[in-house]
Amino acid sequence: MSLNIKSKAVAETSFLHLKDAQDNLMYTEGDKKSDKKPVGVNVYGPGSREYQAAQTKISNRAVSRLRKSGKFEQTSDEKQKEQAQYLAEITHSFVELDYDGLTGRELALAVYGDRSIGFIADQVAEHVKDWSNFTQGSQTS
Questions:
Q1: Strand pairing partners for 27?
Q2: Is 129 helix (H, G, I), strand (E, B) or coil?
Q3: Bridge partners of 95?
Protein backbone atom coordinates (compact mmCIF):
# COMPACT_ATOMS: atom_id res chain seq x y z
CA MET A 1 0.00 0.00 0.00
CA SER A 2 1.28 3.46 -0.89
CA LEU A 3 1.97 6.13 1.70
CA ASN A 4 -0.53 8.98 1.71
CA ILE A 5 2.07 11.77 1.81
CA LYS A 6 -0.54 14.25 3.07
CA SER A 7 -0.42 12.37 6.37
CA LYS A 8 3.07 13.87 6.84
CA ALA A 9 1.93 17.49 6.38
CA VAL A 10 3.10 19.89 9.07
CA ALA A 11 1.03 22.29 11.15
CA GLU A 12 1.01 25.95 10.19
CA THR A 13 2.06 27.06 13.67
CA SER A 14 4.02 25.83 16.64
CA PHE A 15 4.25 26.86 20.28
CA LEU A 16 7.73 27.66 21.57
CA HIS A 17 8.09 27.68 25.36
CA LEU A 18 10.64 30.46 25.82
CA LYS A 19 13.77 30.21 27.94
CA ASP A 20 15.58 33.00 29.74
CA ALA A 21 19.21 33.94 29.13
CA GLN A 22 20.29 31.20 31.56
CA ASP A 23 18.43 28.56 29.53
CA ASN A 24 15.63 28.14 32.10
CA LEU A 25 12.06 27.76 30.87
CA MET A 26 10.06 30.90 31.66
CA TYR A 27 6.75 30.90 33.55
CA THR A 28 4.40 33.58 34.77
CA GLU A 29 4.93 34.74 38.30
CA GLY A 30 2.59 33.36 40.94
CA ASP A 31 2.45 32.34 44.55
CA LYS A 32 1.68 28.70 43.86
CA LYS A 33 3.26 26.42 41.31
CA SER A 34 -0.21 25.69 39.93
CA ASP A 35 -0.65 29.43 39.19
CA LYS A 36 2.39 29.51 36.92
CA LYS A 37 1.83 29.29 33.17
CA PRO A 38 4.36 28.83 30.35
CA VAL A 39 5.60 32.01 28.67
CA GLY A 40 5.96 31.48 24.97
CA VAL A 41 5.25 32.37 21.41
CA ASN A 42 3.18 30.81 18.65
CA VAL A 43 5.02 31.10 15.35
CA TYR A 44 4.18 30.35 11.75
CA GLY A 45 6.33 27.62 10.27
CA PRO A 46 7.83 26.77 6.90
CA GLY A 47 4.61 25.15 5.71
CA SER A 48 2.54 28.31 6.16
CA ARG A 49 1.74 31.15 3.77
CA GLU A 50 2.82 33.68 6.40
CA TYR A 51 6.28 32.15 6.62
CA GLN A 52 6.63 31.99 2.82
CA ALA A 53 5.53 35.62 2.51
CA ALA A 54 8.11 36.68 5.11
CA GLN A 55 10.84 34.78 3.24
CA THR A 56 9.83 36.49 0.00
CA LYS A 57 10.02 39.91 1.68
CA ILE A 58 13.56 39.17 2.87
CA SER A 59 14.62 38.21 -0.66
CA ASN A 60 12.94 41.26 -2.15
CA ARG A 61 14.65 43.56 0.36
CA ALA A 62 18.04 42.05 -0.49
CA VAL A 63 17.45 42.53 -4.22
CA SER A 64 16.28 46.08 -3.60
CA ARG A 65 19.41 46.83 -1.54
CA LEU A 66 21.59 45.40 -4.31
CA ARG A 67 19.88 47.52 -6.96
CA LYS A 68 20.04 50.64 -4.81
CA SER A 69 23.61 50.41 -3.52
CA GLY A 70 25.21 47.70 -5.60
CA LYS A 71 25.95 45.58 -2.54
CA PHE A 72 24.24 43.28 -0.05
CA GLU A 73 26.00 44.56 3.07
CA GLN A 74 24.02 45.91 5.99
CA THR A 75 25.01 47.66 9.18
CA SER A 76 24.39 45.73 12.40
CA ASP A 77 21.45 48.04 13.19
CA GLU A 78 19.91 47.43 9.75
CA LYS A 79 20.38 43.70 10.13
CA GLN A 80 18.76 43.66 13.58
CA LYS A 81 15.82 45.75 12.37
CA GLU A 82 15.29 43.45 9.39
CA GLN A 83 15.50 40.37 11.64
CA ALA A 84 12.94 41.90 14.03
CA GLN A 85 10.59 42.64 11.12
CA TYR A 86 10.96 39.11 9.77
CA LEU A 87 10.29 37.50 13.14
CA ALA A 88 7.31 39.80 13.72
CA GLU A 89 5.86 38.70 10.38
CA ILE A 90 6.09 35.03 11.33
CA THR A 91 4.76 35.52 14.87
CA HIS A 92 1.17 34.44 15.36
CA SER A 93 0.93 35.48 19.03
CA PHE A 94 2.72 35.70 22.34
CA VAL A 95 1.45 33.76 25.34
CA GLU A 96 1.68 35.19 28.87
CA LEU A 97 4.30 37.76 27.82
CA ASP A 98 4.02 41.47 28.50
CA TYR A 99 6.20 44.29 27.17
CA ASP A 100 4.96 47.72 28.24
CA GLY A 101 1.36 46.74 27.51
CA LEU A 102 1.98 46.38 23.77
CA THR A 103 0.02 43.91 21.66
CA GLY A 104 0.13 42.39 18.19
CA ARG A 105 2.82 43.44 15.75
CA GLU A 106 3.99 46.28 18.00
CA LEU A 107 4.68 43.75 20.76
CA ALA A 108 6.59 41.48 18.39
CA LEU A 109 8.71 44.33 17.01
CA ALA A 110 9.51 45.56 20.53
CA VAL A 111 10.48 42.11 21.83
CA TYR A 112 12.56 41.14 18.81
CA GLY A 113 14.14 44.58 18.53
CA ASP A 114 15.28 44.77 22.16
CA ARG A 115 18.92 43.71 22.33
CA SER A 116 18.75 43.20 26.10
CA ILE A 117 16.39 40.26 25.52
CA GLY A 118 17.93 39.14 22.24
CA PHE A 119 17.89 35.54 23.46
CA ILE A 120 14.17 35.48 22.59
CA ALA A 121 14.74 36.41 18.94
CA ASP A 122 17.54 33.85 18.77
CA GLN A 123 15.25 31.09 20.08
CA VAL A 124 12.47 31.91 17.64
CA ALA A 125 14.86 32.12 14.68
CA GLU A 126 16.26 28.68 15.54
CA HIS A 127 12.85 27.14 16.23
CA VAL A 128 11.39 28.00 12.83
CA LYS A 129 14.33 26.41 11.00
CA ASP A 130 13.34 22.92 12.19
CA TRP A 131 10.39 21.38 10.34
CA SER A 132 9.97 18.80 13.11
CA ASN A 133 8.79 21.59 15.44
CA PHE A 134 5.70 21.85 13.23
CA THR A 135 4.56 18.26 13.25
CA GLN A 136 0.87 17.87 13.98
CA GLY A 137 1.54 17.42 17.71
CA SER A 138 3.20 20.87 17.90
CA GLN A 139 0.25 23.04 16.95
CA THR A 140 -0.54 26.42 18.47
CA SER A 141 -1.50 26.27 22.14
A1: 38
A2: coil
A3: 40
Bigger pLDDT: 7 vs 122: 122
Q: What is the model's pTM?
A: 0.86
CA nearest neighbour of 17 among 5, 29, 25, 9: 25
Contact of 88 with 60, CB cutoff 8 Å: no
Count other Cβ atoms within 10 Å, centred on residue 14. 27
Residues linked to residue 44 through DSSP beta bridges, in sequence order:
13
Tens-digit pLDDT profile for residues 11-47: 999 999 999 999 999 999 877 777 899 999 999 999 9
Sort 119 into a burial class: Cβ within 10 Å, 0-12 / 13-18 / 19+: middle
d(CA 73, CA 15): 33
> How crowded is residue 42: how many other Cβ atoms within 10 Å of its Cβ?
17
DSSP symbol at 112? H
Res 103: pLDDT: 97
Using CA atoms, how far apart are residues 141 and 133, in angstroms rounded to an integer? 13
Residue 70 burial (CB count, 10 A): 8
